[in-house]
Write a structure and sequence with these properties.
This protein is an all-alpha fold. The chain is built from three helices and no strands. The protein has a domain of 36 residues. The longest helix has 11 residues.
Length: 52
């Protein structure tokens, strides 16, 4: 529900939505809230940050 609302608001404001489901799943599976991103995911996260 939260993701759907984020997409809705982004659409209302003409904000491009970047989608990386594989990365999102890897972060979800390998981290806890507030924990640092695992080293093996740094490059992928850096690429997302460079995009935005």
């Amino acid at each position: 529900l939260v993701a759907a609302r984020i997409r809705e608001v982004a659409s209302e404001h003409d904000i491009t939505i970047f989608s990386a489901p594989t990365l999102a799943r890897a972060i979800y599976a390998n981290t806890e809230l507030g924990q640092e991103i695992p080293d093996q995911l740094y490059l992928a996260v850096a690429q997302v940050l460079a995009y935005v």
